[in-house]
């Protein structure tokens, strides 16, 4: 199923929950943006910027195209069918640069990656070191990503890998199971199943990575720079208001196109994002979406030293911080 959100969809969704700003007659710049998964809280600031009229305030007419298992939005970006995308990890951006794919990262919403491993507390494991030698369910994509970091830092081996099918059933059924997940979702789902989890957030153990990364074609940055900057600023404001203001417009829009989300799931995700400071911590205090060349250098070193990406000067082409000097929304002090 394809989820696509336009201004008309947003107005219909928020009617009755919050008054949407009246439509003006002035021309607005079109921008089509692809996320990396279905509409949910973890992508909520993008939808809130649409639903609350923030994109319109910045003179933008934005369509949000959700990602999903059957969609490759970065491929559509390269083909010119999208103007920007959200990617999950700096690893993707570094690989694009290494392969001379003409994409560039312009902002990073998540200052910490939400990636985790989760185990049963009753199993007795208390550290990532304790997982060495034990079977772990991970996706195929993870093999060439964070798994290499776990191998380099903790001595994990490939014979520990078991296929992860994005289904919690096998984890719930096996008290010794360990699997991948996101801090905002899987631990809460495990608790709902009556199991107390033990959670290892990679960011707390030295895995240096961004998440929720805004990436565009270099051509867009060069020929539509003003539009690109207004988009980044609007998204920054959307995320600030979604997390620290009234999220009702964004949530109404998200729930209108993804009825699988419950209020309990929504409340938990919001709580974890804020408590863990995934977005507004670190350099995010200088503005939501902020990033520096120094942070990118540190990320590159993490990935290269773990043989996730090759060494070379190409990493400097993965990002451009020139849109981030002014105009980003500041989180509460």
From TrEMBL:
Q: Where is the SsuA/THI5-like domain?
A: 45-242
Q: Which InterPro entries does this chain map to?
A: NMT1/THI5, SsuA/THI5
In Gene Ontology terms, what is a biological process of this protein?
thiamine biosynthetic process
One Pfam family name from the record? NMT1
Q: Which domain of life is it from?
A: Bacteria
What this protein is called in its record is: ABC transporter substrate-binding protein
């Amino acid at each position: 199923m394809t989820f696509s959100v336009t201004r008309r969809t947003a107005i219909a969704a928020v009617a009755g929950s919050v008054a949407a700003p009246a439509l003006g007659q002035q021309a607005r710049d079109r921008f089509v943006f692809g996320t990396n998964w279905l509409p949910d809280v973890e992508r909520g600031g993008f939808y809130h910027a649409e639903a609350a009229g923030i994109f319109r305030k910045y003179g933008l007419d934005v369509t949000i195209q959700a990602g999903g298992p059957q969609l490759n939005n970065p491929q559509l970006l390269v083909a010119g069918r999208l103007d920007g995308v959200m990617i999950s990890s700096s690893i993707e951006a570094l690989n694009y640069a290494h392969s001379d794919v003409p994409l560039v990262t312009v902002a990073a919403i998540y200052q910490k990656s939400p990636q985790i491993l989760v185990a049963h507390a009753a199993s007795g494991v208390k550290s990532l070191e304790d997982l060495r030698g034990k079977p772990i369910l991970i996706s195929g994509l993870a093999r060439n990503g964070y798994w290499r970091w776990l191998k380099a830092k903790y001595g994990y081996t490939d014979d520990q890998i078991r296929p992860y099918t994005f289904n919690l059933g096998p984890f719930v059924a096996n008290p010794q199971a360990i699997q991948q997940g996101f801090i905002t979702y899987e631990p809460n789902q495990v608790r709902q199943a009556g199991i107390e989890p033990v959670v290892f957030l990679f960011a707390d153990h030295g895995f240096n990575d961004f998440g929720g990364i805004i990436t565009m074609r270099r051509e867009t940055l060069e020929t539509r720079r003003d539009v690109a900057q207004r988009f980044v600023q609007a998204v920054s404001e959307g995320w600030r208001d979604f997390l620290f203001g009234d999220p009702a417009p964004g949530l109404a829009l998200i729930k209108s196109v993804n009825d699988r989300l419950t209020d309990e799931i929504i409340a938990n995700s919001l709580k974890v994002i804020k408590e863990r400071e995934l977005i507004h911590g670190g350099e995010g205090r200088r503005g939501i979406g902020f990033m520096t060349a120094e942070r990118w250098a540190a990320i590159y070193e993490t990935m290269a030293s773990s043989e996730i990406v090759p060494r070379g000067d190409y990493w400097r082409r993965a990002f451009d911080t020139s849109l981030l000097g002014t105009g980003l929304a500041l989180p509460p002090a």
